[in-house]
Design goal:
The chain is mainly alpha-helical and 107 residues long. The protein has four helices and two strands, in the order ββαααα. α1 (11-33) packs across α3. The chain starts with a strand and ends with a helix.
Length: 107
């Protein structure tokens, strides 16, 4: 699928857009938590539009699973940056989540 001349079927572009969408969603949640509706609401509009584009490229099941794993990894990194502790069980769970992305990508 091409949107504005961008080929979302390219793996690097697809994952870049997925990562960007995850980061925008996290920032939109953060903004709304602090009552900044001028950033939060347009952020969620962007996320909704990007979901429709990404879902049409690789399908809903595939994209949605990868999107959630990417969001979990990003939130975990933010938590670690914020000095939260990550024990071995949680680290194993994150490892399995990343393994899930690898398994989803290799049919």
């Amino acid at each position: 699928m091409d949107l504005a001349g961008i080929n979302f079927k390219n793996t690097y572009i697809f994952y870049g857009a997925l990562l960007l969408t995850s980061m925008v969603e996290l920032y939109a949640f953060y903004s709304l938590k602090r009552n900044n509706y001028f950033v939060g609401v347009p952020g969620f509009v962007f996320v909704g539009l990007m979901h429709s584009v990404l879902f049409s490229v690789k399908g809903i099941i595939h994209t949605h699973a990868i999107y959630h794993v990417a969001t979990i990894v990003l939130v975990t990194l933010l938590g670690v940056y914020d000095k939260e502790k990550l024990d071995n069980m949680k680290l194993a769970g994150i490892g399995f989540a990343i393994l899930a992305i690898i398994c989803l990508e290799h049919h």
